[in-house]
Structure formats: C-alpha cells, structure tokens
Design brief:
The complex is a heterodimer of chains A (about 450) and B (about 260).
Chain A lengths: L3 E7 L6 E7 L4 H9 L4 E4 L15 E4 L6 E5 L4 E5 L4 H8 L4 E2 L11 H6 L7 H4 L6 E7 L5 E5 L4 H7 L8 E8 L1 E2 L4 E9 L2 H11 L5 E6 L11 E8 L29 H14 L3 E8 H5 L17 E9 L3 H14 L5 E8 L14 E9 L4 H15 L3 E2 L9 H7 L3 H11 L8 H5 L5
Chain B lengths: L15 E5 L4 H12 L3 E6 L2 H15 L3 E5 L8 H12 L3 E6 L7 H4 L3 H29 L3 E5 L12 H21 L5 E7 L19 H14 L3 E4 L2 H10 L3 H4 L5
Parallel strand pairs in B: 1-2, 1-4, 2-3, 4-5, 5-6, 6-7
Helix pairs in contact in B: 1-2, 1-7, 3-5, 5-6
Classes of the chains: A alpha+beta (about 450), B alpha/beta (about 260).
Chain lengths: ~450, ~260
C-alpha cells in the first residue's frame, strides 16, 4: 500500500494551480493499486506542460517519475523500449555516447516519454520527420478497467490514435517502443539567417527549409511596422563525425534561479531591448556553425527554473498553428494584435510544420506555420486578449496546442479540433466512469 | 575511521554482486551504484516481472550484465536451492551480497493479528537469517567478500508505534553484529546499514517530503562503507546521533513517550 501527499501543483507556467492528492508508484503493481482506488486521476511526468494538463484537483495526480526503467534496447534496429517515466534527459545521457539520438525532441530534455506521447510533442524537425508519435511503434496502456492493452497502428489502432496527443485521458501508458536514429556526432551544423520581417522569414522558409533537417526561427514579437516579425532563422543538419566532433552527452549541470523575480521584470520595454540586442548580435548570415545538441535543442535547460523569471503569478505559453493557405495573413494579423496590445510576446518561436497525424484527433501539428510565445500572467485582461487571438487562429482554420494551454474556452477547442466528437466517443467507451481527468480536461469539457 | 588498506571498490569486471529484494528503490539505487563500479549483478526478488525490469534497466544504463532471479524471503525451504543456483552460476566470482528485502507491514494490525506479526518477522528476520545461513559458508570458504544487511533505525529501540517491525530489524541487526564478529577472522566483511527516513514508497505520505533522504544517498553510503569496510552505518548520518539519544532515554521516561 503506498501513501499519498496533498500538494498544490501547477504546470511549468505556474498558472493555474490546484490542490491534489499526489501518489508516486514505484512498481506496476503500485500503479494498478492507484487505479483501483476508484478516485479520478491523471498521470504526471516532469510537469513541463505549461498549463493544467498534468494535475487533477478533483482527485489524484500520479507521478510517473519512478516508473522510469529502460526495458530493452536493440542496437541493431535502434528500437528502445522504456517505461513512460523515462526522460529525454536519461535517454540521451545513456544512448548518445553509443551513437543514438531521439527522432524527435521538444525544446527541453526534462520531459518524460509518457508526457511527450500524451502531448504528441514535435521538434525542430517536424517539417521533415513529423511529431513523436510517428516514431513510436507501440505502447502499453493501462486502461481504467485495469486492462493492459498493447496499442499500435495495427492493434487497437483507435486507442493508439486517441492516446497520441490524448493528454493522458485514455489511460496510463506504462511503456512504449520508439525507434531511435543513428548519430554520427553530438553536433549540429547550423546556418543562421536574419529575416528583416515576417514576409522575409516565410520566404526563406519556403526557399530552403527542405535543405535542413532542423529548422526554427526566433522571432521578435514586439517590434511592429516594417520590422513586424523580424526573425533569426536557425537551421541545421546533423554534423558528420570528424576531428571537431564527438559523441559527448550533454552536461547535467544547470544553474538554479531563486524565486525572487518580480512579475514586472519582463515587460515590453525590457523584452524589446533584449530582442533588439538579440537580433543584432546575430550576423545577417552565418554558415556551418558547429553547435552541440544541448545548446541547439535545449537552450533554456541551463537555467533550471527559468519559469521563475516571470514571477509568482506565472505566465502563459500561447502556441498556435495555422495552415499554409491563409497562414501568412493570419500570422501577420496575430503579430499585429500583439504589437498593438499591452501584452508583449516574449521568447517567440516560429516554425514551419510538415504533415500532421491525420488519424489522431488531438495531435497538434498541422501542415502550416506555428508560433509559440510566452505572456506574463499579470492581469485578467490577458485572457480577453488571447480570446481575441483565438478567433483569428480559428477563422484561419488553425488551432491551439492543448499540451501548453491554460486558458482556452471549451467552445473554441471544438472548432479547432474537428475530430473531437469521435475522440469523445472513444473516451466514453474506454473510460465510462470518467476516471481519467485533469483540470484541463474539465476546463475544456473533454470530461464532463 | 579505519585506515587499513581497503580493497578497491572497482571490480576487475568479472565479479558479481547479489542483491536480494531488488525491486525496492534502495536496492535499485544500490544495484546501480555497484554497476557503476563495474560489478555484474544478480538481482532477485519476489515479483520476477519487476526484478526483470530493474535488471534490464541497470544493464542498459550501465552496460553490465544483470541477471534476474526469483527469490522469496518467506519461502525458506527454497533458499538452499537458490543459493546453490547462484553460486553455481558465479563460481568464485560472487563478490558480495546485499540483503535488501523487507516488509514494513501494518503495525496497527500486527499488534493484534499474529498472522500479520508473523509475516513481518518472517520476511525481515527469519528470511534473512535463512538465506544468509546458506550463503555464509560460501564466503567463509572464499575467505573474502562482503555481506551487506539493510536493517533499520527502528531496530535500535522498541517503540510503541512500530515494535513488531522494529523487533525483527533489531534481531537482524544483532544477527549481523554476531556474524561480523564470527567472520572477521575469515576476512569476510559484514556491513549493517541502518537507514532513517528514506524517500521511498515506505515513507511516501507518512513523512514530510523534505525529511527523507534520496535512495541514492543510501547507495553511495553503502559503496563507501564497503570500500572502507565499515561495520555499522546510519543513513543519513544524523540518525546515528538521533538514535544515540533515543537509545539513551531511560526506560521509565521512554515508556511514557509517544514514539
């Protein structure tokens, strides 16, 4: 019998938060026990989803951090079988020196594979390689009935696709198999291109994105006028083995920030100044800059508590995608809304998506553009403002990334995710007693 | 502190450590620490599926060989066979054993239900004595090796809240103490580990999170103690002082306390 602890939890954005009973199973039998208690629950990995997807203030929150065993690794095929609590950090630490890399990594290595699957995370190579689920062969799902179901594209395909991006609401993934990619070196050969505005950035993406496995742009979300959406494109390919490279893993050292930052530290003025310096410090054009994967993929991980920079009230991360068709206009409209508003767009990132996973109702990526930005959670006005932005996104046929969301309205999600009705039907079938739920699930009425 | 020449902790690559009760977090961490030092492992426990998971995990992460065996502390009739199978497999290469299994049980129930009390005693004490009885001759013949017993601070003094478990662990501590005395001349090292609050399923929800030490801290302490051939360690170290105080409260006062 394992105990539980009452705790106040939030996502990485520290907004919103809720009080929940936290359990931490160490064995599969503990996990089954949690499920048989009868209360509502949701699994939580490292809590890096920004909003309220990974806690359940109506019942239990199940920490998967100790269900983190590597189950099998086949160096011939590159297929790794691991439990859901295994982190990207652990996988890279163990397997980079042996010449393997994850096919998809998000912007931080501090996520569990279970959480990554539940959000169907994407990385800088989405335009080439799709989201995480494309590389997941199968997984085992502990459903509310206590059944352990092997889900793949062939077996229980409906459950497979409902779980991919399904925010942990179909069951608890115990372990999954994923095909890793061979790695010649730990480095990425990066090209930098400055784009003086959004049009130029889009032009560059179209012109040459297919030449790069990895592609992303930092974007200035504050400057307007002719410089609206000025960007620095950072695109690269895996560097070959050579005298200047090796198979070194990332360092595990990080700098921890104290929780003393006032909410006003990051404001339009300070971020605008930062953006200008950041934009200028990059050359107009640079080629073949050898960059270790850690600084290329996980630049913020060195500051272990960077979310504290936004103060105790926290922040929102707003990420949306819009289709190619009409996407440029929608991007411009959104950027203009931001530049004219009181709400600065901090740490904005622009990227081109490739094809999405059409079979998955809740997987976020869709062919088009995606923009992600942080907004400090300072006053209630920010919610009204983002509702306005939602309308632009929705009208363009776009959608919000639910894994990062903390505030979307239940009505809006139905416009954005057309497959939701079918997903809800499956959810009702696999979880008739509505045992799996989270604060996000209730807010978005995914669980009545 | 001992200044005697200690055997290097790094294995020559051919040596194996046997871990009994391998699915606990302390055992997992200890297995990982021995694997880091280059030892191969045989992990054993009651839930073979879990043991196999832990073994696979250690083997993939640390690149050592980690076998998985079924071992049930309560099934003492099987212990001789188990020990023969293990030593048959390792030959002379078994460097040491870690007795990590244990059952906290339900203290409240054990106070009135002998079946519960019996299980606690059988798992924590009888099972340990049984398997060690079969293992000791191997190390005695070899004239080297180490026996690590994970006991508990609750074995240091009987307390009203947990005395059945405490008495079993206390018995185990005394057994290890005597074994150490007996095996000293054979060159076999016996280490008694007395963990205080460790952040595992045993304490989760019962102890304030900040009060419990990481399982990895126990593992590091064990490796250090095996290297230094220490006799008794408390983890975290503060528990040596805490238990010194608790042991020395006069009984007329102690019996009135709620501990």
């Amino acid at each position: 019998m394992t105990g539980s602890i009452e705790k106040r939890l939030s996502g990485w954005g520290r907004y919103p938060s809720g009080t929940t009973e936290v359990c931490r199973p160490e064995r599969l039998s503990d996990l089954r026990e949690c499920l048989s208690e009868g209360a509502s629950l949701v699994a939580r990995g490292l809590g890096r989803s920004y909003g309220d997807a990974a806690f359940n203030s109506a019942g239990y929150t199940i920490l998967t951090e100790r269900l983190n065993r590597f189950v099998a690794f086949d160096a011939e095929s590159g297929v790794l079988d691991c439990e859901a609590g295994v982190t990207v950090d652990e996988i890279l630490s163990v397997l980079v020196p042996r010449g393997f890399f994850l096919p998809v990594v998000p912007g931080t290595k501090y996520v569990t594979m279970g959480g990554a699957l539940a959000c169907d995370v994407h990385g800088k190579n989405h335009h080439k390689d799709g989201s995480l689920s494309r590389h997941v062969t199968d997984f085992r799902l502990l459903t509310p009935s206590g059944e352990l179901v092997l889900c793949s594209r062939e077996k229980h395909a409906d459950l497979f696709w409902a779980t991919v991006g399904g925010l942990g609401l179909t069951g608890i993934v115990t372990d999954l198999r994923i095909k890793l990619i061979p790695l010649e070196s730990s480095y990425v050969s990066v090209d930098y291109d400055r784009a003086e505005n959004i049009d130029k950035a889009i032009e560059l993406f179209h012109e040459s994105d297919e030449n790069y496995k990895y592609s992303v742009a930092w974007l200035d979300g504050i400057v307007g006028g002719r410089s609206l959406g000025r960007s620095v494109l950072m695109r690269g390919n895996p560097a070959a083995a050579g005298p200047a490279t090796d198979l070194s893993r990332h360092s595990s050292s990080s700098f921890s920030l104290p929780d003393v930052f006032p909410g006003f530290l990051l404001n339009r003025l300070s971020v605008s100044a930062f953006n200008t310096v950041y934009y200028r410090k990059h050359p107009r054009k640079a080629r073949d800059v050898l960059t270790h994967y850690e600084s290329f993929f996980f630049p913020l991980d060195r500051l272990s508590n960077w979310n504290r920079l936004y103060g105790k009230k926290g922040f929102l991360q707003y990420q949306f995608a819009v289709p190619y068709e009409g996407g440029r206009e929608a991007l411009i409209e959104v950027l203009e809304l931001f530049t004219k508003s009181r709400y600065g767009m901090f740490l904005a990132v622009l990227k081109r998506f490739g094809p999405g996973e059409a079979s998955s109702a809740l997987s976020f990526p869709m062919p088009g553009y995606t923009l992600a930005a942080d907004l400090p959670c300072r006053d209630a006005g920010v919610f009204d403002f983002l509702n306005e932005v939602d309308r632009v996104v929705s009208a363009a046929g776009g959608r919000i990334y639910l894994g990062k969301d903390a505030r979307l309205a239940a009505g809006a999600v139905r416009e954005m995710y057309k497959g939701l009705d079918a997903w809800l039907e499956l959810k009702a079938r696999v979880d008739p007693d509505r045992r799996l739920t989270s604060d996000l699930a209730r807010r978005l009425e995914l669980v009545p | 502190m001992s200044h005697r020449e200690a055997r290097p902790p790094e294995s020559n690559g051919a040596e194996t450590v046997l871990i009994l009760g391998a699915t606990s977090m302390i055992a997992r961490a200890t297995a990982a620490a021995f694997a880091d030092a280059g030892y191969d492992l045989i992990l054993a426990g009651r839930d073979l599926t879990e043991v196999e998971r832990v073994a696979a995990d250690i083997s993939i992460r640390h690149g050592v060989r980690a076998g998985a065996d079924r071992f049930d502390a309560l099934d003492t009739d099987d212990h001789e066979r188990f020990v023969e199978a293990v030593t048959g497999e390792t030959g002379d290469a078994l460097a040491g054993v870690v007795v990590a299994f244990g059952v906290l049980g339900d203290a409240e129930r054990a106070a009135t239900d002998f079946d519960q009390a019996h299980e606690i005693i059988a798992a924590n004490y009888v099972g340990a004595v049984s398997v060690l009885t079969h293992l000791v001759p191997y190390f005695e013949r070899k004239k080297s090796g180490f026996i690590v017993g994970i006991s508990s601070v609750s074995g240091d003094r009987g307390r009203g809240s947990i005395y059945t478990y405490g008495s079993a662990k206390g018995g185990f501590s005394l057994y290890l103490q005597g074994l150490r005395n007996r095996l000293h001349k054979s060159g076999v090292h016996v280490l008694t580990v007395k963990p205080g609050f460790i952040d595992t399923r045993m304490t989760y929800g019962a102890v304030k999170p900040g009060m419990a030490a990481e399982p990895a801290a126990v593992a590091r302490a064990i490796i250090r103690a095996v290297r230094k051939k220490s006799s008794v360690i408390y983890v975290p170290r503060i528990w040596r002082l805490i238990m010194f105080v608790i042991r020395n409260i006069p009984e007329p006062i102690f019996k009135r306390l709620e501990l």
